[in-house]
Amino acid sequence: MRRAKISIIGAGNVGATCAHWAASKELGDIVLVDIPQVDGMPQGKALDLFESSPVEGFDSKIIGSTTYEPTEGSDVVIVTAGVARKPGMSRDDLININTGIVKSVAEKIAKHAPGAVMIVVSNPLDAMVYVAWKASGFPTKRIVGQAGVLDVARYRSFIAMELNVSVEDVHALLLGGHGDDMVPLKRYTSVGGIPVTQMIKPERLEEIVKRARNGGAEIVGLLKTGSAYYAPAAATIAMAESIIKDKKRILPAAAYCEKEYGVGGYFVGVPCVLGTEGVERIIEIELDDEEQKMFRTSVDHVKDLVKVVKM
Q1: pTM to 2 decimal places
Q2: Is 178 a catalytic residue?
Q3: Does residue 1 surpass a pLDDT of 70?
Q4: Does domain 5-145 have CATH number 3.30.930.10?
Q5: In the predicted model, what is the mean pLDDT of the chain?
């Protein structure tokens, strides 16, 4: 059987940690790519990770590169490339800079790995997945953004902490944009099959939701010189695993919605079935009036982000 191939564009903290999680799960061979200006860095990280394989007992070829030729034949390409928002940098400045980076990456992926499913992680996520789609020319089902899995993970983590129970028994769902724009669905959240609203008082649950929305900012505040990468990478590899193994897991992800939820042609966070074809199905769920209002607000924010994109 041919081993799957995963290419990761951007060998910073998120990209390198994606490689780490993917290798530990033995999902396939891994190519870690970064820009020529940092030649040696992706190669060094790849070699270091490969040298851990005898200890951890995984069989994966892992190489680093500053060119895209080694990505040929990739089943999944993960895009983490881009700059982080710096003090004094406006949202529009960040979008303009990362649009150029993601556009260039997507064009190269389309040339060297035209059959891949692309998972976009670069920020601002809801705009960058749109850029990757436009620049690559990929069908929409083979372009998906990682955000919802991370936001749900934070939400589930905080609920488990509150109740002092296993995270495995907390199940949740959310819609909409990443971070501040996420729409947690309390009615679809349960702990061991018990509705969370029976276990946590409404005021306290709202505080937990707020903390989940600000999860990334909380970590930035603690680290002071960086941002989260363990959980974002783990969330990305959960998506990659479902695609590579054709697990058809239902995961919240930024998928292209036309008629679905009445979005009208944007990538927004919705429950998706992820398999070898990418986004194989979008699941539409019933929303009450409050949830519908929050979702529409989130979609409007996504539209505002995309309006800023200049390609």
Answers
A1: 0.96
A2: yes
A3: no
A4: no
A5: 95
